[in-house]
Amino acid sequence: MSADIYVTATQRVRVASVNITYNLGPMLREAGMDWEDFTRLETATLVARLRFTIAELESRPERYRMLNPPNGWGSYEVLLKGLGEVLAALVDPENVDPRVETWL
């Protein structure tokens, strides 16, 4: 006689770490998101919002580059890259039950 015992778990490991300066907030909002979206939206809704926002940013790069902070902290490219990394981590099938955690 024997017993088969299995332990399964979704490990909470950081699969993406992105730092985007608040100076890019006006650009983020103009493109269709806000910082709070990262904490208040369900994952599926956040993925849709990220896809929309990234497409919007890519569709009019010159418009959004005009919103680069005058102090030089942050840029269109930094925002686009960071959002892309977050999206990629959320849709990667290797990442089971992905969730966004933030420090805002």
Q: What does this entry look like structurally?
A:
The longest helix has 17 residues, at 43-59. Mean pLDDT is 86; it is low at 1-5. The chain has helices at residues 25-30, 37-40, 43-59, 61-65, 76-91. It contains 5 helices and no strands. Helix content is 46%, strand content 0%.
Radius of gyration, in angstroms, nearest whole number: 17 Å
N- to C-terminal separation? 54 Å
Shape assignment: globular
What string, H for helix and E for strand, traces the elements in order? HHHHH
How many strand segments? 0
Uncertain runs are 1-5
Q: Largest sheet at a glance?
A: none
Report the portion of residues in β strands. under 5%
What helical percentage do the residues reach?
A: 40-55%
What structural class do you assign from the helix and strand content? mainly alpha
- Mean residue pLDDT: 86
Count of helical regions: 5
Features:
104 residues, mainly alpha
TL;DR of this structure?
This protein has 104 residues and is mainly alpha-helical. Helix content is 46%, strand content 0%.
Question: What topology emerges from the helices and strands here?
Answer:
Blueprint: H1 25-30, H2 37-40, H3 43-59, H4 61-65, H5 76-91
